[in-house]
Amino acid sequence: MMGELQQQQSSDMIDRGRRAHSFPIYEPPNKPADKMGRSYRTPSPRREPYFAEGEEITPKLKLNLRRPVVMDTPPGSPSDGFNAPATPTKQTVSMTTFGLLTPCTPNFGNFFRPAPASPTTPGLTDDSDVGQQHGASGSDVGAGAEDGYDSDKPLATQFDKMQQQIRDAEFAASLSEEARHGRSRRSTRLALKDVVKVAPVNTIKVAAITQSMKLANPVVPARNVSSPESSLTADAVVQLPPDINPAVLTLDWQLQYPPGGSTHPSYPYPQMDPRLFFDPVHVPIVDGLPNVFRVAPLLLPIGWRHVSRSGFLPIVFDPYQQAFKLTPIGPLPLPCEEVHQGGLAKYVPGGKEHPEAGLLPDIAPLSDGSDEIYNFEGVDWTLPWPKGENFDGSASTGAVQLANGLLSPITGDSPSYTNINKPYSHYIEAQDCPDGIVDIADAWRWLTERELDPTATFVPSPDKSWKNTGIYRTTRVGKEPIASLMALALSDVAVSPNNPIASYLKNQNGRVFCPFRSMATPVHVKITLLGEVEITLVELLSYFPNHYLWRKCSDRLVGAGLTGMDVTNFINYTRGLEGDATRSNNTINAQLTYETEVVSGKRVKIVREPHIAAYSTEGWAYTAWELTDYPLLGLAHGLKHMPEGPDAGPLTAAMKWARENGRYKALLSEVPELLQQAGLQLLIEPGESGDPDKEVKPMHVEKLKKDRIRVLEDARMRKRAAEKAEDGKRKRVKTE
């Protein structure tokens, strides 16, 4: 009887111990003791065998408990062979990398606390720190969840807490191992300076685990994996043969050859050439807006062609039919997007119209992301007008009225000065006849820079001026050619070489610029300096457009069958004159037909002797002005169409040779010497009929007629614009 009583008391004490130790280790303050809300609580089958009667529970004791789990069947269990229901515990995956915090990061809820210090021996961190850490993270799963009270705080089993602490210890050991090898970040190394209490490894007793328990996957410390070293030395790499078609992925290569763009690595990239640079500042402003149609024509290298524009920048094709955009820093290729927007996809390398279509290696896989295009040709458009209707101005009924300025292209009723086919002016005062050229040295510098880069703008010398020289600004309204001012200064220097003022040019800053009078060779240039060098009729009209005032020159023009109208058309065509700069037929015709008598001063008709073919300038004379020499390359200033083919004689060949050989300071009087140095002949090509002068007019008659239409239409447009400025044409008033 006494034995049964003692056994009953012992059982009661064990039950009380079990119920006492089933509460969580860490409870928030001011929490009621009876968490379950009832007098009886089923002890957890996972926690029951870990506590002995009367033994004090400490964090160290919890770490030492690694014994086999004895499964107790709770009351009401259907069978003893199954485990009791329990809430699955959350497994924490150790991560050795540090970056942005995510829910998968260990101790995600406690990242504001400093990390523990790196231990020297793999072990466990301080028990209190570990308990606080996991209590704050809230990642443990409470045992009370199995009681069905959702409002209560989840209670974690002692075994789960122990497993979590073991995993944290292993994680801390792996971190200390990495910190010792220097693989962690600087911020991590700085945060691991606190001293951490580490428990000895031998205090952890790993017990056998039953089938109902599952340990977390062991954390494998990160290894230092070094990148494989190349077996090729630097010398061996240099000696490797180049690939036939290397797929280069460097940034420089992609900038030069954008995939799917306008260039291809099979063709050479263009060399730096001053003629392949274009600055948008050269686009003239017309009525407050830039007008690219009035930009001077481009002077491109041989084989290059100007096709279109991308904004202000011109698009040109090189001899390999690669498209480039001329910019202030040189030619740049067009990416795929600009190629398709400009309608050039068929003509660049890789297009169907390219001369080597289908023969080039495909570089499409190296896409630059700019290949999103819209296929305008493959879509059946639905337009609000009949399909196939032509809206071209030349095919419409009002095309003639529109061309003549009778209709406005916008409203169709009011007259407007709008010429669709109007040619743009290729004269730019800042380049062709700039201000600020003080002396001969500045003039030669301007002439040299102009030959090297026709688009270059002259920069005056800051230390030169006409101040205190006694040279005043000219009283002329318009500017004279710079080459003409140079010729006058050169003659003054030849007469007075010791005069410091003789080398100064005339001051004509701020005067009116004229595309003809400010560019063309003046009449006082001594053309007889050519001597025995023959000159073609087209060269005479191109390089010496004012010399029809010389009697011998007019005799040759009339003897070739040219009229005053023909001479006018030649001058307007070769220089592309427009507006007030165009030559008048009446003036030139009067000079070819009439002359002034020396005695009476009257204008009488010229009676010419029978024409004798002579193609040199020997025996020519002009007494109205003092004659001067002239810079050789200045003869071509202002020309839009240079003499070509049989029209290009020895004079053109001498100019070309001087330009190619850097003889920019050559004068007209040096032409015979230059031809001798170049080994060129002094004679022109004989014509098929024996007289090359009489073959000039039939050869150029069509282009002269076409250019004549341009000049007349331009004059008509200007007249209508003037009438519109006066509020319409004045109506006739009938008077009585």
From TrEMBL:
Location of region: Disordered: 1-50, 111-154, 716-736
Bias-annotated ranges (Polar residues): 1-12
Annotated protein name in UniProt: Uncharacterized protein
Native source organism of the sequence: Phaeosphaeria nodorum (strain SN15 / ATCC MYA-4574 / FGSC 10173)
